[in-house]
Amino acid sequence: MNKVILFYPSFLVNKGEKTLYTDLPLSIIALASQLYNNYDIEVIDERLDHYEEEEIIEKLHDVFMVGISATTSYQILNGLQFAEKVRSYSKKIKIIWGGWHASLMPEETIKHPLVDIVVIGQGEHTITKLAKCIKNNEHLDSVPNIIYKTKDGKCITTYKMVFNSSQIPHSMKDGYKCVDIDRYIHKAWGNQRLLGYESSRGCSSSCSFCSISALYHRKWYGLAAKSIVHDIQWLKDHYHIDALHFFDNNFFVHKKRAMEIAKLFIKNNLKLRWDGTIVTNQFLKLTQQEIEMLKQSGFYRIIVGVESGDEEVLKKINKKHTNKQILELIKRCKEFGLFPSLSFMVGFPWHPEKDTQHTISLIEKIKTLYSETEILLFIFSPYLGTPLYDIAKEYGMLFPSSLGEWSKFTYDKVNTPWVTNQLQKKINRYLSFFGTKKMTNDEQQFYQSFD
Ligand code: B12
Ligand code: SF4
């Protein structure tokens, strides 16, 4: 037995519906890149792969472990359904859960009968050790950052560290070989062949609604510019991409690294359009020459979490900018011909009517200054493990308390008791106005479906 299945569950309850969010399953690719040389790897991306029961059974032949990657979403539901199939095929195959949900709720997750081992946090080192131990029937107590069940049902934890800078693989090429990259290349923002890429992990900020700071505690690690550009050149040569979207939580934490990447794009004549996340203060500190160099390298779009137009809320959620700075950022984008994509949340627990009003009013000012600005407007939902999750509980929000219950929960639906129906109706009007109507077909597709 030498086979490992890595499973990326669908986000949908009804899998017949149009598939949302079909970007590269980077978690699975990162794990596959570590296992590639020693095991037969099969990746199942349930958002795109539709197999009959018998086909799944056939695939399970020769498998000694499966890895399931899930965020807090219906991915849990679909992950459990897959685990059920694995369990009924053979009790010997180890079922391992990792990803954001399992990492934030490890003790709760391990209690589920369809979970043998939970991996907490980054999985690269752990999966390599786990695979070796499971295959050779060795004890698991030397594997870091897991919770596992012993034969008599006891749960043992080896949790040591939250974030390890050496864990981001220097090249994911082997992982890429395990998926059909063409399926993840999209048309969007005027690009014909856009692909996602991860060049750093973590974030130096500590916004109180965000899971990144909850798990990684403000630590950040980025790959070296040379190694990134080397990978990207390879992706360009093999998949003829014309644009790259950095999925990093905060691409510009290390300005020197970001500028080095831009320089290398120019030097190597990569001719790729690219975009990435930036915090307002980071953007406002860029000099004119730096912005020009970024533009020359193909940088065309900044993605900024503005989150609220209510300055009281900004303080409470630990966002370090003001409305004035946001308007300044918009003016600079217009001046330099950069395309701003801003995301907002309304309906925080304190005074949801007021924060909605202030946020809408800021969005209107932004649109007046630079109408091309892309606005993404969400209703706030408290993410697991964050300070706002605890505040939400104080404000009467109830959360599931087992993996089975979480499988019926999604952040996509409004589930905060303090957002009244009336407020929700009001927000919905703006959601459709700002959220989609102003977007081109390409961009709508990015957020709605890539089918
Ligand atoms: C890209 C991205 C998206 C993309 C989709 C990507 C895709 N694959 O199609 C888009 C933009 C569409 C998206 C949407 C949403 N996202 Co999102 N997204 C991300 C982001 C920025 C990167 C994900 C990624 O690829 N990371 C790179 C990989 C390598 O890291 P990783 O997933 O953490 O995997 C590592 C470990 O977790 C572990 N691991 C993971 N799986 C497994 C499995 C096994 C077996 C093992 C051993 C280990 C393991 O090992 C991996 C390597 O170290 C993350 C933040 C982040 N940095 O991860 C948020 C994040 C995952 N998203 C989040 C959320 C909330 C959402 C939304 C609900 C937001 C919204 N309000 O609409 C939506 C909706 C999704 C849905 N329908 O439910 C939250 C999840 C929180 C949670 N508790 O689950 C995150 C953490 C962001 C945050 N700031 O809090 N997202
Ligand atoms: S800047 Fe973005 S990634 Fe960083 S903590 Fe805030 S919301 Fe999370």
Automatic annotation (TrEMBL):
CDD domains in alphabetical order: Radical_SAM (cd01335), radical_SAM_B12_BD (cd02068)
A single GO molecular function term of this UniProt record: cobalamin binding
Protein name: B12-binding domain-containing radical SAM protein
Cofactor(s) it depends on: [4Fe-4S] cluster
Keyword Transmembrane (UniProt): no
Domain B12-binding: 8-141
Keyword Iron: yes
InterPro entries in UniProt: BchE-like (IPR051198), Cobalamin-bd (IPR006158), Elp3/MiaA/NifB-like_rSAM (IPR006638), Methyltransferase_Class_B (IPR034466), rSAM (IPR007197), rSAM_horseshoe (IPR023404), rSAM_sf (IPR058240)
Span of domain Radical SAM core: 189-431
Originating species: Vallitalea pronyensis
